[in-house]
C-alpha cells in the first residue's frame, strides 16, 4: 500500500467516525466527493485566488516602467499624485494596504460564492429529492428534521466548502500581513458561518414550503441572494447609500460584509481607507438609541443575536414543513411571536433620529416593510385548500377543543389564517403606538396613528381578499390571489402617480401608504375612510364565512 | 384497542377536493398475515396504503398499528421505526452504490455499527444482489432495482410491510424471485400488505385478500373463504333420456339454484352452490334415480372474473 493510499484509508475512517453522528452527511459525501469533482473544485479555487492576487499585483507601480506613475500602494506621492521612489530608486510600496485590499477582495468573493453557490445547490438538491420521491423515505426514518437537514447543509455544498477551505492559506497570509488581529478574524469567520447557516436554512425552508415553480426556484433564490450581496458590496466599496438611518440599516447590517470596516480601522491605514465604507458611518447607526456599532464586538454580537432569532424561527418552520407537508409553515401561536420579533427589530431601526421630518419618512418605510412582512406571513399561515375544505366539513366531528370556534381560529392548525393575521396586525399596531406618542413627528402624533390604523386595515383587507380567492373553485387560485393582491398594492399608487395626483391628496388614503395624505386630510374624511374600510372588511369576512359553509356542504363525487 | 390486529383501520376516509378516494373503510389484518389488496387502477389502493404507512393523513378515521393509535404527527417512534413502506415507483439514488445505499438507510434507522455490516450482508443475500454490491444503482436492471428497493424497505427489520404494486412491470422470473423473498419474510413473522391490480400475482402468496373498488373495501377474508362464498360453480349435464325426470331430480337437491336448457339439445346448465364433493353427491343421486347421463361436467368460475364481478356489484 502506498503512503497516499494509507492516508486515504485513514481519512475515510475518520470520516466514517464522524458520520456515526450524521448519516445524511456521510451519504452526501459519498455521492459527491468523487475524483473528478474534487479536481475541478480545487482547480477552480486556485484559479480564482490567482486571479485576485494578479489583479492586485497589477495595481503596483511597474518596475520596468521608469516614468513616475500613480499607484494606490505607494507610501508617499508627489504633488501631482505620482509615486515617490526611495533613495535606491525603488518604489516605496505600502504592502500592508496591498494585503488588506487582497484580504477584503478575497473575503467578499468567498462570501458571495458561499451564499450564491450554497443556496443554489441546496435548493436544487432538495427539489430533486422531492420530485424523485426519495424525500419521504428520509422523512420517515427516525432521524429528526434537524439531523437530516443539518447533514444536507454540511454535505450538499461539500465541494464548495473544499474550494473555500483552500483559500485559507492566502486568506491568513493576507490578514497577517495587513495587521489584523486574530480575534477579529475569528469573529468575522464566525459571522460568515452564521450568515451561511441562516441563508442555507432559509433556502431549505423555501424549497420545502411550496411546490410551485419548481424548476425555477434554485435560480430565483440564488439570484436574489446574489443581487442582495452585490448591492451591499457596492455600498461597501463606494460608500454608496450605505447607512440610511432607517429600517434599511437592518437589512444592510445583517451580513458579514459590515464587519470588514473594523478590519480596515484595525489595520491603522487611516489615510487610505477612504476608498471603503468607514466605521465612522456605522457609528451613526443606532438601535433603540443605542450606538452598538461603536465597537466591533458589540456589532458582531448584535449580528449574531439577530441571526440566532431568525434562524430559530426558520427552523421551526422547517421542522413543521418537513414533518408534514400539509402543515402551514408556522403555527398561529408561533406567528404571534414572530410578529413580535419583527416589529421589535423594525421599530428599533426606525427610531434612529429625532428630526421629525426624517422620522416621518422612516415611518413610511416601516409601513412598507410591514406590508411586505404581512403579505409573506399570510402565505405562510394559510392552510391548503384541501385542509380548509376538510376543516369546514368535519369540524363538528373533531376533537372538543377544536369545536370552540374562536379558539380554533386563533390557535387551530387547520382553520383559516385570517383571524390570526388580524391579531398579528393588532400586535404590531399596539407595539408601535407608544413610540408614535413619545417621538416628535411634525404632523401631530394623533394623525400618524390614524395613518398606522388605516395602513393596517388595508393590509387586513388585502389578506381577506387573498383568502377569498384562495377559497374559490378556480384551479389556479394561489396564482390568482397573488396577482390580485399585488395589483391592489401596486396599481392604485402607480395610477395616482401617473395621473399626477399630489402625495397629499385624499386619494392616497386608500393605498397602502395612507400616511402620505394624512396631514392634509380632514378628520371627517379620515373617519369616513376608516369606516368604509371596516365595512368592506366585514363584508369580505361575511363572504368568506359563506364560502366556507358552502365548501363544507358541497357535493362529493365518487371516483369513477 | 384491538391489539390482536397488526393493522386495524376504522372509518378511514380520504378525500381529494370533491372526490373520495377511500370511503369509510374498515380493515383488520391479523399479525403474521400476508394480505393482498386487489383492485383496478384508481380503486384507491395506493391512497389506502399511503395512509396506513403514515405518508398521507386521513381526512377521517383512525388507524391502529399493533393496538396503538397511529398518525403521521404522533411521536410514536417505536411503531414508526417498525414500518416498511415500498411505494409503487420505488425511487432510488443513482449516484450511490448498492452497498452505500443500504448502508445509508441502515444508519438512518440507527442500526448500531456492530450489527450494521452483518445486516446489510443478510439482506443482500436475501435479495441475491451480493455480487452487485459495488455497482452503481444506475447500472442495475429493473428487477434488481426493485429488489434493492425491497431491501431498503426491510433493512431495519420492520414488523409491518406495505408494498404497493411490487410485482407490476416485472418479468415472470423476477416475479418468482420476488415471491420467494416475500415467503421468507412471512416466515420471519412480518405482517405484509401487498397491493396489485392482478389477482394472479397474489393468489399463491396471500393468506387473505381484500377487494377494493371505487374506494370501498367490498370484500375481505381468506382466499378460500371468498372462493367458496362467491365463486359460482356450474355443472353441465347431458342426458339421453327424458328432460323432465332430470329436472324433477334436480329440484330435490337443495344446492341446485337454477338451470337453463341449452336450446336444441338435452343439455342443461346448472348453477350449483356446493363444492366438488357436493357435486359428486349430486352425480350419485342422479345415477341412483336412474337418469341416464352422457355428460356431467363440473366447472368453477375463474377467480379473476369473480373478483371483477364482485367489485362492480358491490360498489354500485
Ligand atoms: N394527490 C392526489 N390528488 C388528487 N387525487 C388523487 C391523489 N392521489 C390519488 N388521487 C385519486 O384517488 C383515486 C385513487 O387513486 P389510487 O389510490 O392511486 O388508486 P390505485 O392505487 O388503486 O390505482 C384516483 O382517482 C386518483 O385520481
Ligand atoms: Mg396505485
Task: Tell me about this structure.
The complex is a heterodimer of chains A (560) and B (316). Chain A has helices at residues 3-19, 23-32, 35-57, 95-132, 135-140, 145-155, 158-165, 168-178, 182-209, 217-238, 248-253, 260-266, 279-283, 296-323, 332-350, 356-381, 385-394, 400-403, 405-411, 418-438, 445-470, 477-498, 515-518, 523-553, and one strand spanning 557-558. The longest helix of chain A is centred in the first third of the chain and has 38 residues, at 95-132. Chain A is globular, with a radius of gyration of 28 Å. The model of chain A has no long low-confidence stretch (mean pLDDT 84). Chain A is mainly alpha-helical. Chain A has 24 helices and one strand. In chain A, helix 4 (95-132) runs antiparallel to helix 8, helix 17 packs across helix 24 and helix 21 runs antiparallel to helix 22. Chain A is 70% helix and 0% strand. Chain B is an alpha/beta fold and 316 residues long. The interface between A and B is large, with 35 and 41 residues. The complex binds adenosine-5'-diphosphate and magnesium ion.
How would you describe this structure in keywords?
heterodimer; A: 560 residues; mainly alpha; 2 domains; 24 helices; 70% helix; B: 316 residues; alpha/beta; six-stranded mixed sheet; four-stranded antiparallel sheet; 11 helices; 37% helix; 29% strand; binds adenosine-5'-diphosphate; binds magnesium ion
- Residue fraction in strands of chain A: under 5%
Number of helices of chain B: 11
Helix content of chain B: 25-40%
Bound molecules: adenosine-5'-diphosphate, magnesium ion
Largest sheet of chain A, in brief, is:
none
Helix and strand sequence of chain B: EEEHEEHEHHHEHEHEEHEHEEHEH
Q: Gyration radius of chain A, to the nearest Å? A: 28 Å
> Percentage of helical residues of chain A?
55-70%
Kindly provide the radius of gyration of chain B, computed on alpha-carbon positions and rounded to a whole number of angstroms: 25 Å
Shape of chain B: elongated
Order of helices and strands of chain A: HHHHHHHHHHHHHHHHHHHHHHHHE
Biggest interface and which pair forms it? A-B, 35 and 41 residues
- Our measurement of the CA-to-CA distance between the termini of chain B, rounded to an integer number of angstroms, reads 32 Å
Q: What proportion strand of chain B?
A: 25-35%
Low-pLDDT parts of chain B are none
Output mean pLDDT of chain B: 84
The poorly predicted ranges of chain A are none
Q: Please summarize the sheet with the most strands of chain B.
A: 6 strands, mixed
Amino acid at each position: 500500500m502506498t503512503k497516499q493510499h494509507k492516508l486515504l484509508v485513514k481519512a475515510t475512517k475518520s470520516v466514517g467516525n464522524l458520520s456515526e453522528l450524521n448519516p445524511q452527511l456521510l451519504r452526501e459525501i459519498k455521492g459527491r466527493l468523487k475524483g473528478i469533482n474534487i479536481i475541478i473544485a480545487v482547480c477552480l479555487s486556485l484559479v480564482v485566488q490567482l486571479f485576485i492576487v494578479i489583479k492586485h499585483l497589477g495595481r503596483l507601480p511597474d518596475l520596468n516602467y521608469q516614468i513616475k506613475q500613480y499607484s494606490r500602494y505607494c507610501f508617499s506621492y508627489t504633488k501631482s499624485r505620482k509615486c515617490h521612489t526611495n533613495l535606491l530608486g525603488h518604489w516605496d510600496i505600502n504592502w500592508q494596504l496591498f494585503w488588506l485590499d487582497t484580504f477584503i477582495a478575497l473575503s467578499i468573493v468567498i462570501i458571495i460564492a458561499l451564499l450564491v453557490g450554497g443556496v443554489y445547490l441546496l435548493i436544487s438538491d432538495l427539489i430533486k429529492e422531492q420530485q424523485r420521491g426519495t424525500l419521504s423515505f428520509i422523512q420517515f426514518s427516525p432521524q429528526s428534521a434537524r439531523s437530516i437537514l443539518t447533514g444536507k447543509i454540511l454535505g450538499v455544498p461539500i465541494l464548495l466548502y473544499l474550494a473555500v477551505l483552500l483559500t485559507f492559506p492566502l486568506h491568513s497570509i493576507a490578514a497577517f500581513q495587513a495587521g489584523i488581529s486574530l480575534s477579529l478574524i475569528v469573529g468575522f469567520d464566525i459571522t460568515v458561518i452564521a450568515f451561511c447557516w441562516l441563508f442555507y436554512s432559509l433556502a431549505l425552508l423555501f424549497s420545502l414550503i411550496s411546490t410551485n415553480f419548481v424548476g425555477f426556484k434554485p435560480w430565483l433564490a440564488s439570484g436574489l441572494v446574489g443581487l442582495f450581496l452585490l448591492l451591499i458590496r457596492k455600498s461597501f466599496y463606494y460608500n454608496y447609500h450605505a447607512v440610511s438611518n432607517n429600517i434599511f440599516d437592518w437589512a444592510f447590517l445583517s451580513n458579514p460584509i459590515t464587519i470588514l470596516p473594523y478590519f480596515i480601522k484595525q489595520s491603522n491605514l487611516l489615510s487610505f481607507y477612504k476608498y471603503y465604507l468607514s466605521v465612522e458611518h456605522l457609528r451613526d447607526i443606532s438601535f433603540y438609541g443605542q450606538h452598538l456599532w461603536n465597537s466591533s464586538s458589540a456589532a458582531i454580537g448584535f449580528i449574531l443575536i439577530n441571526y440566532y432569532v431568525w434562524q430559530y424561527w426558520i427552523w421551526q418552520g422547517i421542522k413543521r414543513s418537513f414533518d408534514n407537508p400539509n402543515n402551514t409553515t408556522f403555527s398561529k401561536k408561533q406567528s404571534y411571536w414572530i410578529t413580535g420579533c419583527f416589529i421589535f427589530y423594525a421599530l428599533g431601526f426606525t427610531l434612529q433620529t429625532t428630526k421629525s421630518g426624517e422620522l416621518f419618512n422612516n415611518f413610511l418605510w416601516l409601513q412598507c416593510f410591514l406590508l411586505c412582512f404581512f403579505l409573506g406571513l399570510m402565505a405562510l399561515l394559510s392552510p391548503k385548500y384541501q385542509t380548509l375544505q376538510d376543516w369546514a366539513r368535519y369540524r363538528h366531528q373533531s376533537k372538543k377543543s377544536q369545536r370552540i370556534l374562536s379558539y380554533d381560529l386563533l390557535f387551530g392548525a387547520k382553520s383559516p389564517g385570517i383571524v390570526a393575521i388580524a391579531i398579528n396586525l393588532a400586535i404590531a399596531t399596539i407595539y408601535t403606538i407608544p413610540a408614535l406618542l413619545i417621538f416628535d413627528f411634525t404632523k401631530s402624533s394623533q394623525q400618524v396613528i390614524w395613518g398606522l390604523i388605516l395602513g393596517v386595515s388595508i393590509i387586513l383587507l388585502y389578506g381577506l381578499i387573498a383568502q377569498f380567492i384562495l377559497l374559490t373553485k378556480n384551479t389556479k387560485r394561489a396564482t390568482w390571489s397573488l396577482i390580485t393582491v399585488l395589483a391592489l398594492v401596486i396599481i392604485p399608487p402607480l395610477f395616482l402617480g401617473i395621473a399626477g395626483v399630489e402625495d397629499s391628496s385624499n386619494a392616497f388614503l386608500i393605498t397602502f401608504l395612507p400616511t402620505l395624505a394624512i396631514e392634509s386630510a380632514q378628520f371627517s374624511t379620515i373617519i369616513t375612510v376608516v369606516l368604509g374600510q371596516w365595512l368592506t372588511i366585514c363584508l369580505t369576512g361575511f363572504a368568506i364565512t359563506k364560502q366556507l359553509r358552502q365548501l363544507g356542504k358541497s357535493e362529493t363525487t365518487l371516483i369513477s | 384497542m384491538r391489539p390482536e390486529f397488526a393493522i386495524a383501520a376504522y372509518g378511514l376516509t380520504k378525500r381529494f377536493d370533491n372526490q373520495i378516494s377511500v370511503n369509510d373503510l374498515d380493515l383488520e389484518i391479523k399479525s403474521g398475515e400476508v394480505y393482498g389488496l386487489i383492485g383496478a387502477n384508481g380503486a384507491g389502493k395506493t391512497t389506502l396504503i399511503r395512509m396506513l404507512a403514515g405518508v398521507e393523513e386521513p381526512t377521517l378515521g383512525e388507524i391502529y398499528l399493533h393496538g396503538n393509535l397511529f398518525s403521521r404527527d404522533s411521536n410514536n417512534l417505536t411503531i414508526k421505526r417498525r414500518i416498511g413502506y415500498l411505494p409503487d415507483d420505488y425511487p432510488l439514488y443513482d449516484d450511490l452504490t448498492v452497498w452505500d445505499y443500504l448502508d445509508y438507510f441502515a444508519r438512518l434507522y440507527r442500526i448500531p455499527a456492530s450489527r450494521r455490516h452483518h445486516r446489510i450482508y443478510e439482506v443482500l443475500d436475501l435479495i441475491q444482489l451480493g455480487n452487485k454490491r459495488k455497482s452503481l444503482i444506475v447500472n442495475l436492471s429493473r428487477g434488481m432495482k426493485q429488489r434493492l428497493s425491497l431491501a431498503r424497505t426491510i433493512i431495519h427489520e420492520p414488523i409491518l410491510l406495505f408494498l404497493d404494486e411490487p410485482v407490476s412491470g416485472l418479468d415472470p422470473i423476477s416475479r418468482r424471485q420476488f415471491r420467494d423473498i416475500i415467503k421468507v419474510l412471512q416466515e420471519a413473522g412480518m405482517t405484509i400488505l401487498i397491493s396489485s391490480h392482478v389477482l394472479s400475482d397474489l393468489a399463491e402468496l396471500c393468506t387473505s385478500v381484500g377487494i377494493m373498488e371505487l374506494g370501498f373495501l367490498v370484500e375481505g377474508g381468506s382466499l378460500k373463504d371468498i372462493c367458496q362464498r362467491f365463486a359460482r360453480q356450474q355443472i353441465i349435464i347431458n342426458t339421453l333420456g327424458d328432460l323432465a325426470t332430470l329436472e324433477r331430480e334436480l329440484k330435490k337437491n337443495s344446492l341446485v339454484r337454477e338451470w337453463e336448457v341449452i336450446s336444441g339439445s338435452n343439455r342443461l346448465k346448472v348453477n350449483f352452490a356446493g363444492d366438488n364433493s357436493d357435486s359428486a353427491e349430486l352425480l350419485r343421486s342422479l345415477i341412483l334415480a336412474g337418469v341416464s347421463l352422457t355428460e356431467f361436467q363440473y366447472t368453477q368460475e375463474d377467480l379473476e372474473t369473480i373478483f371483477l364481478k364482485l367489485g362492480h356489484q358491490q360498489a354500485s
